[in-house]
Specification:
alpha+beta; PH-domain like; 240 residues; 30% helix; 3 domains; three-stranded antiparallel sheet; 6 helices; elongated
């Protein structure tokens, strides 16, 4: 059995104990470069006083610059059920199809079929009534057996974002101009939405319905924004 060197264990332990860097800022006097202690700073009026040369100076720009620094977000690792491929300026994402209202509709019809079939044997309904609903359980069974093959294909190039469902399930292929996309975010239903800049103002468009896990939604938001060069910001409709 191979043993790791002791130094390697120490290195791994050091990495585990490593804490994220803290964000802070120190101010120096603009006149004499002496450090300014916190007690000599009026945060309300944004005015500091140097105890070395008695100079008074404003520091509102330093505070503004400090507060406007973007928060470092933890990167989401690619979850199971999503495949991603980069080729030159194109990004191709393949996603396991989420459940849609179309699937739910046939599930309801399948339930009705079973109830009608039960009443057919008990009461003696005409045979054409259960036959009318027979397609629903057949489709539901086929859909369940081939679920892993049902995909959503998302393609982003320099000009467009295209989304296609295969099989379609009555969902049309959609194409958006990437220059109109202002923001991608995870909505409160755990789906992925985007903000589009239009002639009449901004509008929110649902890109994907509820996904099976929050990590899938956050990963898609992360990768699409990264590819399009969009700086992430807080959206009122976003899931917290």
């Amino acid at each position: 059995m191979e043993h790791k060197p002791l130094d390697k264990y120490k290195l791994e332990l050091k990495n585990l104990k490593k804490k994220p860097a803290k964000v802070f800022k120190r101010l120096n006097c603009p006149a004499c470069e002496a450090p300014i202690p916190a007690d000599n700073m009026n945060l309300h009026d944004k005015i500091g006083k140097c105890s070395s040369c008695d100079a008074l100076f404003p520091f509102h720009e330093e505070i503004l610059d400090f507060s406007n620094k973007p928060t470092i977000k933890q990167e989401v690792i690619r979850p199971e059920g999503i495949d991603i491929f980069h080729f030159q300026e194109e990004l191709d994402i393949t996603i396991q199809q989420p459940t849609t209202g179309f699937d739910g509709f046939f599930l309801i019809l399948s339930t009705i079929f079973l109830l009608v079939l039960e009443f057919y044997f008990i009461i003696g309904f005409p045979v054409w009534i259960p036959a009318m609903f027979a397609l629903a359980p057949i489709y539901t069974l086929i859909n369940f057996m081939n679920r892993s093959k049902h995909k959503v294909y998302l393609t982003i190039n320099e000009q467009t974002l295209t989304i296609k469902w295969r099989p379609k399930k009555f969902i049309k292929d959609k194409v958006y101009d990437v220059h109109d996309i202002d923001q991608i975010y995870v909505n409160k239903l755990n789906g992925v939405s985007m903000i589009i800049n239009g002639h009449d103002g901004q509008k929110h468009i649902k890109l994907l319905p509820k996904l099976s896990s929050p990590s899938k939604a956050k990963y898609l938001e992360q990768e699409i924004e990264k590819h399009l060069g969009i700086i992430d910001r807080e959206v009122l409709e976003e899931k917290k």
